[in-house]
Structure prediction request, 633 residues.
Amino acid sequence: MGLTWMAYWGTKTYYQRIAAAVAILLAIFQTYTALFGSFDALKQRSIHLGLGLILVFLVRPWGKRKTGGGGPIWLDWLSAGATFIMIAYLLVRYDWITVERFTLITPLAWYEKILGIVAIILVLEGARRVVSKGLFYCVIVFLLYPFIGPFLPGALHTSPIHWTELIDFDYLSLGGIFGIPLGVSATEITLFIIFGAILMRSGGSFLINNIATIFAGRMVGGPAKVAVVGSSLFGTISGSGTANVATVGSVTIPMMKKAGYSPEFAAAVEAVASTGGQIMPPVMGAAAFVMSGFSGIPYTTIIRYAIFPAILYYLSLFVTVDLRARRLKLSSLAPAISLKATLRDYGHMIIPIAILVYLLIAGYTPRLAGGFGIVTAIVASQLRSTTRLGLVGTLAALENGANGMLIIVTSTAAAGLIVGTVDLTGLGNRMGSAFMYISGGNLLLGLILGMLIALLLGLGLPTTPAYIVQAATVIPALIAMGLPPFVAHMFAFYYSTLAIITPPDASAAYAAASLAEADGWKTGWLATRLAFVAFIVPFMFAYNQSILLVGPWWEILITVLTASIGVFCLAAALEGYLILSLNRFERLGVGAAALLLIFPSWVAALPGAMVLTWLLIGQFRKRSRKQLEAGSV
Prediction:
């Protein structure tokens, strides 16, 4: 807001201007194709990846890693030029590649072999710079697997594959780099990142933080509840755990520490609240869009499946911070600005959010909803001086949005290489057979194995690639064991999401710990405990889908009631406080009641309710005795 052309453009170096132009072009391309129709699949994905990789090499130059600063060096310019040539060949020879030649049958020309190798190297390098070394090494392992597989035993054994077949499939088809993961990025995910960037640039962060403070700040332990509410609201737009931590945590973590929460607890609350954005409708995280592409489940249906588990997630966290605040007798937080003033200055920015939510719920494609959301956010921002972007501010927001999508562009392209290897070698089918053998066909054991694999993948992979690997390996095995396809996908999706707060990797927890000046390791384990309900719920909906709002209405209603009470009990058991502090025996009792109530079955819920009632009576009696003793003194 109030940004001048000189302040925005005049202070940039020549390479920063080139990077800004590429970023704005990428954002405009995404918005245009969302509103007026995407190009053919390979064209859309090629342009998307090409602009994204060129931007990576300009804004994440090699020299910055070596010297701590500076612009692109010759290697970065060479990489950007190679990206242009590699993508230009696909566009110039588009008819030949998509119509005239046959994948894995038509021999590759010598220059196609070179370009294919270059394409793989560029994607790997982009992922290394933007995502993580973990993804970089994981992709390399999968690329080497077709050549090592013929010498491996059992389920890992595969037939020999010539290296040119791998190049052909990964570069000149829609099965490798340009497969479903990149396709979802090119047509859907990035639009919501641009939308979020425009909203935040025009004052959306003020709107969200102020609303959260007004509604939750005056409660006991208000600062932590502001973090929960604010992060959940921001998460519905951004769908990124780490972005939520950086945006909301910079405000809420200092408030929580000032109110009396320990640095580790403040960081853990923010990490867990921010991570929930990936499972919170209507936008959710990138993996949810990829799930729709892999499973064929409409995105609106995924939203319906996800809504109640997400509510349970945030309810558990909200109750936990409330109980800790009551136990520690922490203070509330008075809002710095009234609701009236907030709505007067920023309330109109709810309009684009409302339009986005309506279009998604009404059944329009996420692509169209995201495109309209971007346009309405730009228009709505002009209505008041407090949010007005103007032309320069809009360009800056588009640039921020394009830079924010780089992690998605590179990770989905790299994940496409993994999927390409799995498809070529048939590894997914053999993994399914191995799962059946290890578990003996036992669903519970299969679910535990699936959970462990998801968390293991999360040690080095972001949520989306971790889910994609499971979609190619674990999910088919779970389906073969009798799990409905939508449940298998939701199961893998949840644990892929939780990996970013689970040590030892725990990227979101470490980001929050750095803001709180806290111990990252302790923060990660505390965040895992605070999010414990999310580790339980997938097992519950694997056996009864009423938690996903699937089934008769009366069964869904009972599940909603009992599971909500169960989550409250689980928070009490983990926090050691209900009405008063709980002793060890009482904590075990309320923990047992929690598990019985969360499990969607009357058979389990009735004894759970009886245990909870017995504990509540005991707590009320204990409090009455303490009050009488205090009165007699």
Observations:
- Residues 192-399 form one domain.
- The longest helix spans residues 602-632.
- The radius of gyration is 26 Å.
